[in-house]
Amino acid sequence: MSATVLVIEDNEANLELAKYLLLAAGHTVMTALDGQQGLAAVQREAPDLIVCDLQMPVLDGYGVLQALKKDAALASIPIVAVTAFSMPGDEQQVLSAGFDGYISKPIEPETFAAQLEQFLPSRLRAVQR
Ligand code: MN
After folding, report:
1. Which of 9, 12, 67, 109 is most buried, with most CB under 10 Å away?
2. Residue 88 pLDDT class (50, 70, 90 cuts)
3. Ligand 1 geometric centre to CA of 129 (Å)
């Protein structure tokens, strides 16, 4: 059983890479190019996991997080920040804000999907080689 993962990312190269890696890991992938589009996608179909950039136009990753956490129907969807903010302290700031996880850019093709697996319910984890 695989998961439905929503990737919210304004950089199209990063979006395509994340999508490719998640599809290769056996997941179904939804995409959105900013936070507002991302929230609209969540309303259409709640994903099992959200992977979200922080710096985006219209609505950033923190805005997405806030909107999800104040909606009881959506608050339990795990949301992982993927960000170029990788100075000491940035991970702690992201986790303190309420994100379930933190992955620093650049996206590592070898490990990206596996890093995200831990945030899925076990029944939805793709079969790992
Ligand atoms: Mn961005």
Report:
1. 9
2. confident
3. 31
